[in-house]
Amino acid sequence: MAGKTHQARRQAGGVVPQAWVIGLFCLAIGLCAATPRAGAGIVAGGIVRDDPFTVVEGDVFNSVLVTGTSKLDVAGGNIQALHARGESTTNIGGGEIDEISGVHHAVILITGGVVGSIVAATQDGRTPQQTFLTIEGGEIGTIFWQARPILIRGGHVELLRLRGSGEVTGGSLDHLEAWRIQITGGHVETLVVGRVGSSFISGTLAEITGGRIDMIEAVHDSQVSIFGSGFNLPLGPIERSGMTEPFTGRLTGILSDGTPLDLAYSFGPSATITLVPEPWSGAVLLLAMPLLLRRSGR
Q1: CA–CA separation, 273 and 256 (whole Å)
Q2: Cα–Cα–Cα angle for 177, 245, 241, nearest 5°?
Q3: Closest C-alpha among 286, 287, 274 to residue 239
Q4: Contacts with 101 (C-beta within 8 Å, 6 or more apart), sequence order
Q5: pTM score, two decimals?
Q6: Choosing a second label site near 26 at 20 to 30 A (CA), which of 67, 112, 196, 255?
Q7: Confidence grade of residue 30 (pLDDT, cut at 50, 70, 90)
């Protein structure tokens, strides 16, 4: 009788630990379901659809597809190919990504980490993608962008080929080729306006009010406007001197944001670099552009 009582107590006592184990297991599953993340190791491919997802140190993926309304946070790890689709949001604050491609209405924010290349190109050669890209930090190799306006606030970009529009307010770029660009801050070593890769583009505009630029190359029919004061050359379009093309020289002065200006310039026979007094706005410039162009053609 005593043996049976002892056995019953032991069985009854064993129920509690089992219940705790099951409860903790269910809680863990619930937490993982609320905020999924990858396990360490190599994964052939991952699809994130309409869910939050986090990649951390130790996670390695051959490819990750972010689609729907999902959100991906990359805090570490390594992804060979990241594809942003739909209306997804991708935040990159760390880790290494070899290549990022974005289409549709995806939103990509980079605040840290290392990215080899970023591509957002047209599917039919004409219609730009609706992807948004903002760079506030990190190290980026090459960007080929034909989508929504790109915003660079920080970080370092080696090469940006921009067949859309963009704005640089901070950070540094080694080489920037642009269709339409506004520079209010940051550091651009070489700015090429009117050519992206080997293609010449018509209707190219660049507006510079701040930041630091070491070299400007204006080609084709591009129009570059530099806002400031104290220039070493007269206001208006820089005159073409000599018979040799492209026309080259050096420009000094103070930009609208107070940054000292000292850059080398080069422009072709159809391109224009115009020095605009500081109080002028971009709207006033557009109204006065025909007059300035007639003046430069005399």
Answers
A1: 16
A2: 110
A3: 274
A4: 81, 82, 83, 84, 118, 119, 120
A5: 0.78
A6: 67
A7: very low
Distance CA 65, CA 102 (A): 10
Token pair 């080259």: residue:
248
Backbone angles phi, psi at 18, to 5 degrees: -65, -40
Q: What is the dihedral of CA 157, 158, 160, 166, to 10 degrees?
A: 30
pLDDT digits (tens, 9 = 90+) for 165-223: 899 999 999 999 998 999 999 999 999 999 998 888 888 899 999 999 999 999 999 99
Pairing of strands 114-120, 132-145: parallel
CB 248 within 8 A of CB 266: yes
Cα 199 to Cα 177: distance, rounded to the nearest angstrom: 11
The token pair that represents 16 in the structure block: 């509690």
CB atoms within 10 A of CB 259: 18
Is there a contact between 92 and 66 (Cβ–Cβ < 8 Å)? no
